[in-house]
């Protein structure tokens, strides 16, 4: 568990539990929100809409991860930084009022330290993503995303790692900034021909993770 103190706060402070169905949005980028959420069950996706109308995926979030904690702490209803959409059949979230949350943060030094650790981790992740994509070509960007998904959804399978979550080629394109899913199709096809990956029940099985690791920006 990455942030046990924050998780414990949501579980013990009478947070409201809300249910959202697949493809339902929790927040919209640029719209005000007065809550902080932590994911209790399911998977959600955060994304941005670019100026040209294309969607750029930021991350998938799982159980125990904080869905919305960014923006100024002293504003009752700040603008949400991302669209956040449910990707599983349903998702359950802990929901607390953000003003009450921050008041509790300032009263509890242990909670405060962990919240700041969360911010530092978010900043470090953002820096690494900028490095990865600014210095990568299309193939390297795809390999980087596949490696990230092995860390988030990966389970041991045969001689490699299965990404135990269905991710479409269109969604992969949105994570990498590649313009079309057809480009992703071609690159995945090449990896299959090289026996690097295999598609099993619409899930990506990484047979040779070392190949991907050797061909990304370090």
UniProtKB/TrEMBL annotation:
<dbReference type="InterPro" id="IPR036390">
    <property type="entry name" value="WH_DNA-bd_sf"/>
</dbReference>
<dbReference type="InterPro" id="IPR014710">
    <property type="entry name" value="RmlC-like_jellyroll"/>
</dbReference>
<protein>
    <submittedName>
        <fullName>CRP-like cAMP-binding protein</fullName>
    </submittedName>
</protein>
<dbReference type="InterPro" id="IPR018490">
    <property type="entry name" value="cNMP-bd_dom_sf"/>
</dbReference>
<dbReference type="Pfam" id="PF13545">
    <property type="entry name" value="HTH_Crp_2"/>
</dbReference>
<keyword id="KW-0238">DNA-binding</keyword>
<dbReference type="InterPro" id="IPR050397">
    <property type="entry name" value="Env_Response_Regulators"/>
</dbReference>
<dbReference type="InterPro" id="IPR036388">
    <property type="entry name" value="WH-like_DNA-bd_sf"/>
</dbReference>
<keyword id="KW-0805">Transcription regulation</keyword>
<feature type="domain" description="HTH crp-type">
    <location>
        <begin position="136"/>
        <end position="210"/>
    </location>
</feature>
<keyword id="KW-0010">Activator</keyword>
<keyword id="KW-0804">Transcription</keyword>
<dbReference type="InterPro" id="IPR012318">
    <property type="entry name" value="HTH_CRP"/>
</dbReference>
